[in-house]
Design brief:
Oligomer: single chain
CATH class of the largest domain: Mainly Alpha
Helix content: 55-70%
Distance between the termini: 29 Å
CATH architecture of the largest domain: Orthogonal Bundle
Radius of gyration: 26 Å
Number of strands: 0
Structural class: mainly alpha
Order of helices and strands: HHHHH
Number of helices: 5
Length: 242
């Protein structure tokens, strides 16, 4: 009788462990989907702006999150197979993958946090130079498009203000055709509208584009850091104990 009771108890514990692993796997998938979503959102939402940054840390953090999210999908499937088949070797591989993903997400979060600390200084040093030296220059089409989109999206003109464009290689060149600012500075873009820099015609924003871009990137970096570190810690905390 005691042997039968013991077998029933072991079967009950096995079933409970299976359900526990399935629940954990579902939570793991949800966390992975969040990580993948944030990574894709960061890359696609404003990917044009990446060409304006001096370092690639911002993009690298996003791509790392995408990698981690993709691994979650594969690892989640592996975890389901391991639980259903009750294969210890698969479970060992599953928990090893969890550790790898935890480290990847942690790295992405830390990178985002570190870059957040020096973002303002980098923009101050490089954004104005990038805009004035590379705008509308041969082979710099990506930067030209990024600057045009930046000024239109954030309704700004110039790195610090519209006067920054007086030092621009483009404005002093023949293709500018008498413009004092690029046409993308205009509130309503029409051909050669950049010839007139009156506040009624162009965006005159205090702090210029640098303030707007810094705030935008800072918000994204906070999300990347919070999701990367937060989900990594949650996954570590929810990992089934042996």
């Amino acid at each position: 009788m005691s042997a039968v009771y013991k077998d029933d108890q072991e079967d009950w514990l096995t079933v409970c462990l299976k359900y526990l692993l399935f629940v954990f796997n579902f939570l793991f998938w949800v966390g992975g989907a969040a990580v993948l979503g944030v990574g894709v959102w960061t890359v696609l939402e404003k990917s044009d702006y990446l060409s304006l940054l001096a370092s690639s840390t911002f993009a690298v953090s996003a791509y790392i999150l995408i990698l981690a999210g993709g691994l979650v999908v594969v690892t989640g499937f592996l975890g389901c197979c391991a639980v259903i088949r009750e294969q210890r070797s698969c479970l060992s591989t599953y928990f090893f993958c969890l550790l790898v993903i935890f480290l990847i997400e942690l790295v992405a979060g830390v990178l985002a946090y570190v870059y957040y600390q020096r973002l303002s200084e980098e923009l101050k040093q490089h954004l104005n130079q990038t805009m004035t030296e590379n705008y509308a220059q041969p082979g710099k089409e990506a930067i030209t498009l990024a600057v045009d989109r930046l000024q239109q999206d954030f309704k700004c003109c110039g790195s610090n203000n519209s006067h920054d464009w007086t030092m621009s290689v483009y404005i002093s060149s023949k293709p500018a055709d008498g413009r004092v600012v690029p046409d993308s500075c205009c509130k309503t873009i029409t051909p050669h509208c950049g010839k007139r820099d009156h506040p009624s015609n162009i965006y005159k924003v205090e702090g210029g584009c640098i303030t707007k871009l810094e705030q935008f990137l800072a918000d994204h970096l906070l999300v990347i850091g919070a999701v990367g570190i937060g989900v990594a810690c949650l996954q570590c905390d929810r990992s089934p104990r042996d």
